[in-house]
Design goal:
This protein has 17 helices and 22 strands. With 649 residues, it is of the alpha/beta class. It has 5 domains: 47 residues, no CATH class; 161 residues, Alpha-D-Glucose-1,6-Bisphosphate, Chain A, domain 3; 103 residues, Alpha-D-Glucose-1,6-Bisphosphate, Chain A, domain 3 (3-Layer(aba) Sandwich); 119 residues, Alpha-D-Glucose-1,6-Bisphosphate, subunit A, domain 3 (Alpha-D-Glucose-1,6-Bisphosphate, Chain A, domain 3); 119 residues, TATA-Binding Protein (2-Layer Sandwich).
C-alpha cells in the first residue's frame, strides 16, 4: 500500500491501530488479510478497507445497524464495546445531573424529618425507587436475538456496562425484542440494549437502545405536542440520541482503547419472560374473553377454530408466541418446521422480512398442504407481524394483508373494546389511535367514528409510543403496538395474539378477514394504498435523488393538482425535522416521498379514498386512482438527473 495515494499510509496506520485493540480474532484476521491483499496491489481489498475505516457508524434513533466485519464502520465487538462505554457515560452523567437537581428536595425533606414530632412513624426508604433516581448505579438490561454474533455482542455490551460501574441484567437466552422493551419498563431500568438487526440481511447486526421513564424526548412526533406517555422502555429519540452520540465520541477521545470490562453482572431468571407472557395474554380479547366464554359452572361449548400456520422466519418469536396463545386461550398453530428455530444464517429465505414477496413461500406451501385458513409470520426478532388469509382469487390461494389493512382492523378492534368499556363504566370513550404519517389515514376515520382522538407521527415507534393517551398505534411496515401499557415499542407477539383472536371470532361467526375489510370499507369509506420502492447501492445516491425531488416540485399527478405541499424539513410540522415530502392532491389522494432510515432506498407512498357507491365501486375507484397516480409518479421520477439515474423503480 506504500505506492498508493498520499493518505494510504494513514489508512494503514489506522487499520493497524484498530487491530492492536480489537478483541475479536476473527475481525483482526479479516483486517490483516485485507491489509496484505491491499499491499499486494488488490484494488478490491483497498476499497473494502477504505469503506470500513472511513469514519464511524453513526449512532442515531435506530441505534446502530450495519454489516458485520472489521472496522469502525461495521458492526463488531470493538464497536459494540466502545458504543456501550459511551452509553454508560451518558447514563452516569444523567444520573449525576438528576441527583444534583434533587438535592434541594432531599435537604428540605431532611429538615422536615428533623423537625417532625418524636412519635411520627418513619416513612419509606427513598434511596432506591423504581425509576432509578437513586444513589445506586443505573440499571441496564441487555438482550439479544438469534442472529450470528448477537449473543457475543450482548455479552460484550453487558461486561462493558459492568466495567463502567453500572448494574447490569443480561437476558439468559435469545428473546424477542418486545421482551427487552418490556423488561426495561417492568424493572424501572435506566436503559436497555437489544442486539438485533430485525429483518435485515443475514450479514447485518445492530444495537438498539431503549431509555427508562426519565428518557423523555423533545416531543411525541405528532402534530399535537405533549409530554408523552408515562412509562419507560421506549426507543431512544431526539435529543437523547445526539447526546449519546456525543458521549461515544468523548469516551473514544479519552480512552482510545478497548474500554474496561467486568463480569460482575446478573443474569435474568425465567420470571421476567413469564411476566411478559402473562401480561400480554391478559390484554388479548381471545376465546377466553366474555363474548366467547362459557357461563361459569357449565361445560364449555366447543367453538370451531380456524387452522393457522405460523412461521418464526428463523427467528426468536416462536416459543414465546405459542406460550402467549396458549395462556390467552387461543388455539394452537402449525409451525413451519424449517423456520421455527433461531438460525442467523436464514437458510430458507433471501431476506428474512415478511414484507418480501418470497419470504412466506414455505408458509404458504404448508398452508395449502394443511388447508389452513390463515398464516401468521414474524420477522426474526418478532417485533413485526404479517397476516395472510386464504383467498379464492389470489395466486397460490393466499393473500397477505398489507400493513395498512391489518393496522385498520387491529385499531378498529381496540376502538370497539374501548367503546364497550366506556359503556360499561358509564363514561365517554377516551384515548388516542395513532399511525405514522406514511401510513394510511384510515385509522383517523375509525377514531372519529368511536369518539377517540387520532394522531399522526413521524416514522418510527420512538414517536408512536410517545403519543399521549395511546390506545393503539401502527406503521405500514408491519409494526403494531396493541397494548401500550405493557410494551413501549412495536410488538409482533401481542399483535399476533390479537390477530389470532380476531381470526377465531370471525371463524366462529362464519366470516373471514376479507368480510371484515368489506365491512370497514362500507362503514368508514374505502382507503387504498400502494408503494414504490427505488433501491440503490449507496445511501448517498438515494440522498441525491431525494434532493432532486425537493428541487423539482411537481404541480400534480395524473391530472390531480397538488393542493398542498408539506415539507417536514421545515419547522412547525413536527417536533424534529424529517426528510419527508407530502403532496396532498385535489381529489383527496396523497403522495409521500422519503428515503429509508436504515437502507439505501427511496420510498413513495400513495393513498386514495372513496366513499361513493357500493364497496365494490369504492374499491374499483381507488384502484384506478392509485394506478393512474403510480404511472404519473414513475414518469416524474424518471425525469431525475444523471446523479440519480441509477435509482429506478
Amino acid at each position: 500500500m506504500t505506492d498508493g495515494p498520499p493518505n494510504t499510509d494513514a489508512l494503514e496506520a489506522q487499520v493497524r491501530a484498530w487491530i492492536a485493540i480489537d478483541p475479536d480474532p476473527d475481525t483482526r484476521a479479516e483486517a490483516e488479510q485485507l491489509l496484505r491483499l491491499a499491499d499486494a496491489g488488490d484494488p478490491a481489498a483497498e476499497t473494502r478497507l477504505r469503506d470500513a475505516f472511513a469514519g464511524r457508524l453513526k449512532f442515531g434513533t435506530a441505534g446502530l445497524r450495519a454489516l458485520m466485519g472489521a472496522g469502525p464502520r461495521r458492526m463488531n465487538r470493538l464497536v459494540v464495546a466502545q458504543t456501550s462505554a459511551g452509553l454508560a457515560a451518558f447514563l452516569l452523567a444523567r444520573r449525576a445531573q438528576q441527583e444534583q437537581s434533587e438535592q434541594p428536595d432531599r435537604q428540605m425533606n431532611a429538615r422536615t424529618t428533623a423537625s417532625a414530632p418524636a412519635h411520627a412513624a418513619p416513612g419509606p426508604r427513598t434511596d432506591r425507587d423504581p425509576h432509578g433516581t437513586s444513589s445506586e448505579p443505573p440499571t441496564v438490561v441487555v438482550g439479544f436475538d438469534g442472529r450470528l454474533n448477537s449473543d457475543v455482542f450482548a455479552r460484550d455490551a453487558a461486561e462493558t456496562f459492568a466495567g463502567a460501574g453500572l448494574d447490569v441484567l443480561l437476558l439468559p437466552e435469545s428473546a424477542p425484542t418486545p421482551v427487552l422493551a418490556f423488561a426495561v419498563r417492568r424493572l424501572g431500568a435506566a436503559a436497555g440494549v437489544m442486539i438485533t438487526a430485525s429483518h435485515n440481511p443475514p450479514g447485518d447486526n445492530g444495537y438498539k437502545v431503549y431509555l427508562g421513564e426519565d428518557g423523555s424526548s423533545e416531543g411525541d412526533g405528532s402534530s399535537t405536542r405533549s409530554d408523552g406517555n408515562a412509562g419507560g422502555g421506549r426507543p431512544v429519540a431526539p435529543p437523547q440520541d445526539r447526546e449519546i452520540a456525543g458521549w461515544i465520541e468523548r469516551v473514544l477521545g479519552e480512552q482510545g482503547a478497548l474500554p474496561p470490562r467486568s463480569e460482575r453482572l446478573r443474569v435474568a431468571g425465567a420470571e421476567l419472560l413469564d411476566a411478559y407472557v402473562a401480561a400480554t395474554a391478559r390484554a388479548v380479547g381471545g376465546p377466553g374473553a366474555p363474548a366467547l366464554a362459557a357461563p361459569r359452572g357449565t361445560a364449555p361449548t366447543p367453538t370451531p377454530t380456524p387452522t393457522v400456520v405460523y412461521t418464526a422466519m428463523h427467528g426468536v418469536g416462536g416459543q414465546t408466541a405459542r406460550r402467549v396463545f396458549a395462556l390467552a386461550g387461543l388455539p394452537g398453530v402449525i409451525p413451519v418446521a424449517e423456520q421455527d428455530r433461531p438460525d442467523g444464517r436464514f437458510p430458507t429465505v433471501d431476506y428474512p422480512n415478511p414484507e418480501e414477496p418470497d419470504a412466506l413461500d414455505l408458509a404458504f406451501a404448508l398452508a395449502r398442504e394443511r388447508g389452513a385458513d390463515y398464516v401468521l409470520a414474524h420477522d426474526p426478532d418478532a417485533d413485526r407481524l404479517a397476516l395472510a388469509a386464504s383467498h379464492p382469487d389470489a395466486p397460490g390461494g393466499y393473500r397477505r394483508l398489507s400493513g395498512n389493512e391489518l393496522g385498520l382492523l387491529l385499531g378498529w378492534r381496540i376502538a370497539e373494546r374501548e367503546r364497550a368499556a366506556a359503556e360499561r363504566e358509564g363514561r365517554a370513550p377516551r384515548g388516542t389511535l395513532a399511525n405514522t404519517i406514511v401510513s394510511s389515514p384510515a385509522l383517523g376515520a375509525v377514531a372519529r367514528a368511536h369518539g377517540l382522538d387520532h394522531a399522526e407521527t413521524l416514522s418510527g415507534f420512538k414517536w408512536v409510543s410517545r403519543v399521549p393517551g395511546l390506545l393503539f398505534g401502527f406503521e405500514e411496515a408491519l409494526g403494531y403496538l396493541t397494548d401500550p401499557e405493557v410494551v413501549g415499542d412495536k410488538d409482533g407477539i401481542s399483535a399476533a395474539a390479537e390477530a389470532l383472536a380476531m381470526a377465531c371470532e370471525l371463524y366462529a361467526g362464519g366470516r373471514t378477514v376479507w368480510d371484515l375489510l368489506d365491512e370497514a370499507s362500507e362503514r368508514f369509506g374505502h382507503f387504498a394504498s400502494a408503494q414504490i420502492v427505488l433501491r440503490r447501492e449507496r445511501v448517498a445516491d438515494v440522498e441525491a435523488l431525494s434532493a432532486w425531488v425537493r428541487a423539482n416540485a411537481p404541480r400534480g399527478f395524473a391530472g390531480r393538482a397538488v393542493e398542498q405541499v408539506r415539507d417536514f424539513r421545515r419547522p412547525g410540522l413536527a417536533p424534529v425535522r424529517a426528510n419527508v415530502l407530502a403532496y396532498d392532491l385535489a381529489d383527496g389522494s396523497r403522495v409521500m416521498i422519503r428515503p429509508s432510515g436504515t437502507e439505501p432506498k427511496l420510498k413513495v407512498y400513495l393513498d386514495a379514498f372513496s366513499d361513493r357507491g357500493t364497496v365494490a365501486e369504492r374499491r374499483s375507484a381507488t384502484a384506478a386512482a392509485l394506478g393512474q397516480i403510480e404511472v404519473a409518479v414513475r414518469a416524474y421520477l424518471d425525469g431525475a438527473g444523471p446523479e440519480a439515474a441509477g435509482a429506478r423503480p
